[in-house]
Fold these 3 entries.
Entry 1:
Amino acid sequence: MTMSEQSVAAELPRHVGLIMDGNRRWARARGYADVSTGHQVGAEHLTTVLQWLSVRGIDHASVYVLSADNIRKRSTLEVGFLFHLIETVIADRIHDAERWQLHVSGDLELLPASTRASLERTIDETRGRPGHLTLAIGYDAHADILGALRQAVTDAPDVSAAQFSVESISQHLAGGPNKVIDLVIRTGGDARISGFFPWQSTGAELHVAQCAWPDLAEADLEAALAHYSRARQPR
């Protein structure tokens, strides 16, 4: 049985989270003076990985693109190029893929007007598609959860604190309709979540790929899915 056949026979996650780490290291390791090359290749690789998920029937994905902390702390030049990639590569390719409905979680006010407009246009034009893709852009985990709590209280002002449930808070979180991430795949070798959707990924399995994001191969995805399947087997 091939690796692909094994993954189909095994239990698959419904919702996969992707932490795209290692773009800058990838560029430096290949002698590029400008780390933006790594970000460019990484952005282009995202649509390939999403296609791999799609052919396996995985219709929910959440991807860490850019945190609010990244926007504040990285150089203006690097962050500016990331904004450019979001609006000219990521948004356009998601639109053209004809599979994924785009959702965004994060503070879009941190983005330039052109980047924000590109994302909002793609969100609008991809409504009704079968797959749901949530991009964490300008994302802060505390703000994500606080925003959901505040919205839940606003929507139900007469409900007491004791009556709120995990489900009632979850439905107010930004992003796609499936709020439970089953498997988180992080590239780059670091076994850290780095504030990646903590509410949604509370029960997720974590698989760390040693390769940088641009080098993530389909075999690496198979390994992550096999890791998930083994972890979910009765003990």
Entry 2:
Amino acid sequence: MLARCPWSSSVAHLVIQNEPAKVNQIELILSDLHLAWVHLDDGDVVARGDAATLAARSPDRTRVFVPPIDAVVLSPVDFGDLPPAQARAAARLAAADETLLDGADLHVDVSADGLTAASTSRTAMTQWIADYDPDVILPAPFLLPRRDDNVQVAVLGALKIVRGQQLAGGWDDIITPMLMGETPVSTISAADFDQAMAAAAANPEMNLRHGEFERRTRFVLDRKVVQLMGWLAVALLIITLLIPLISTARLNQQSNTLEATGRTSAQTAVGASVPEDQALARLDARLAALRGGGAGFVRTSTAVNLAVQATPNVELTTMTFSPDGQLRVGARATKAEEIGALIARMRALGLDVNRSAINPAQGQPVVELKVKGQ
């Protein structure tokens, strides 16, 4: 099984500057070993220092924090077929039965392959985040690659980190040999450990900083982005102003095209001998002659019919239209007052009305009206 291994009170963390496809900077801190940090550039060691020279967090770096090994318990699991959220929930239930921590203070994560669960306290997580503000919190044994055929051991001063197929943690002279059994042990060199550390930081198998502890990304506008947004806003304003101007120009062009087409059609109708600029006026005059004077038959007769329909007990007996635009209408009612109401309604509709004398016919008043539209 994966063992919980003490690591005194040392503190470890990694810092990686964020650039595409490149590990720019890693800082590994072991406060009790005087090996404070190691800088790597694209996987190569470029500098080393102690805790006193540890720089403050840079906003353009990705920081991976490696907590004390005795603060994180690793356990073997088999959640490879579950989504991350469900795997964490299952691991939390399993860890709650084994840990001495208060259930409310328990924080659990599962490795990317679903084969290892890590549990720690929420109190410790809060403290690590307050002290280092990392992007990733990675348990120390994950700095080493897991081998199925042997146990990997890294020696860092007086500290040994162990990782195998069923073993991960810190070296213990009594417990570790019992857990390894006959499995071969391979002690990696310092150079190999630097490479393993760089690879683990670039692609961490686990990140304890999730859920309520997930890092909140702060949105910062770059100056060039602000300038670009400003130019886009200006371009959008110009386009917005150009749209009605372009639409007006297109409408004017279409209107001119229709007017030219109308003049050509009018010239065809009245004859090619008439100049094009006089064709529309000549066609209007011909249409007026066909329609008749005044408002024309259609408009005048329509207004008369509306007036008759609105007057009770009144009906038309005759209707004759003359070329001068005058409409002669014969109307019959039950009494003379209804004839007067009909005339009033016609005049309200804009018609000129002249009436003849009312003559009785079969006991009903009959009148002839001369109506002309305006």
Entry 3:
Amino acid sequence: MSKTLQAIRGMNDLVPAQTAVWRVVESRLADIASQFAYQEIRFPIVEQTELFKRAVGESTDIVEKEMYTFTDRNGDSLSLRPEGTAPCVRAGLQQGLIVQQVQRLWYTGPMFRHERPQKGRYRQFYQFGAENFGMPGPLADVELIAMTAQFWQSLGITDAVHLEINSLGTPAVRQQHREALVAYFEQHRDQLDEDSQRRLSTNPLRILDSKNPAMADLIASAPALSDYFDEVSTAHFTQVKQSLDTCGITYRVNPQLVRGLDYYTHTVFEWVTDKLGSQNAICAGGRYDGLVEQIGGKAAPAVGFALGLERLILLLEACDKTPETSAVVDVYWVCVGDAAVQQAMQVAQTLRTAIPTLRLVVDAVGGSFKSQFKRADKSGAAIALILGDDELASQSVQIKYLREDKPQKTILFSELEPCLSRYV
């Protein structure tokens, strides 16, 4: 007997009861993005590996350890996208969207990273992201943070998350800080764990983001990035904080917040929660003014964010804020005999055309009234339509109310449309 095939570890199915919730959440996020004048963009799941090496950084964990990379039949190195910013920039450049103009874009879909699966962190995971191109000032940073704050308010979880921000300054500031950081950690190399020792020569800023408690004091005493700020870096970050204050958005400055990708400059931010254990970040982003040029376009200011949909759904469940979903079916047609089924299907098709949002099911399984009404009740339908020989002869149907205490009644086929319109 053949072995039953299973989904790949870390790549999960979403059954209808789950996708109904996801659709509500995704719809709310998209609606709020539209309120901020962001438009949807879609780009491929597979990109040239070079795109991520150039954008994310060859020394990052994503490129070194986590990407699903393969050689196709033409000998090209391709990768499943591990994040959405780089493909969004590539698409924007290729389609002529990022040329001396402001462009506000949002996207959603699966990303892929080969890492150890755990709750809220999977090998195929879903993100909702937004990117803003062409606005160099700090107000664009605040606009995106304000959008995310609106997400939480809409979903009823404002009290469950808090905002952490930091500034990475300009590339020149980062280079000066990097040199000081390397010199400092070299003096204390014996106190670094294996991962941090590796990062010391590749991406030393990430050492500040280590969760190893044994290194906490060492990291706390490391050279602070803010000590190297120039006037531009200071002015940008000051205005971000002032604008957040003006908008009434509470935040905490976290000097250890660095983000893991090479392309960030100036503002970086994370929305975190204490309700999901160690996987506490549900949304993160920042400014990346050098990435467009790095990928091959003309220099353009940019800022964006991505939020993990799995973690957001888990947080909604933890806060008992999972949005309600509507019933799958509005009207369920119970039929007796083949002729009744054929007539019901014909009338049902006319009703679906006349009332496009009506969700109507004709019971094609058959059986007794009792079994059909059990299926009708299980479907969540508000009403059942009953069609037998007598009704067929008079071109009428009986209406039985399944969720209301109202008497059963008989109406003509011609009266169905105005009667059923109130149930959509």
